[in-house]
Amino acid sequence: MNKVGGVFYFRFSFDNDINDDVVHNTWAFNFKPDAVNLDGLTIDDMQDDWYETTCEEIESDYGVHDWNSSPCDNITAVGYCTYEISQEDAPVCVERWRQEFVALLGAENVSTQIYDLGSVDVEDDLDAFNRVEELEDVGVEE
What distance in Å separates the CA atoms of residue 103 and residue 54, rounded to the nearest whole number? Predict the structure, then answer.
């Protein structure tokens, strides 16, 4: 099966001091189909130096990333969740990831911005990818 593309998404949990509820929000960006197998390198293969080093650096700056991907055959995905990153830092952290992927894969292969998917639960990797696609198609800007 051909990959339709890839997605990076990150679901954050924040404490709500007003009523002790937990607030959730997800930010994401996509990769073009060419980026998931660029020069023979797939995102699935990036568990070596680049991925580990990048993850360690960003975690040390922002907080722990817990793996949160729900795989689908036709999507390459990196999905995380956390409760350790502040609401102010959450989109900054995701933008940092986007910049790292731009440096690795080229700006032409990565969404031009991160997208706020809101508090709705993402069903799986394909759902996250499709939500970003819809926002890109209508020209939503952060």
Answer: 12
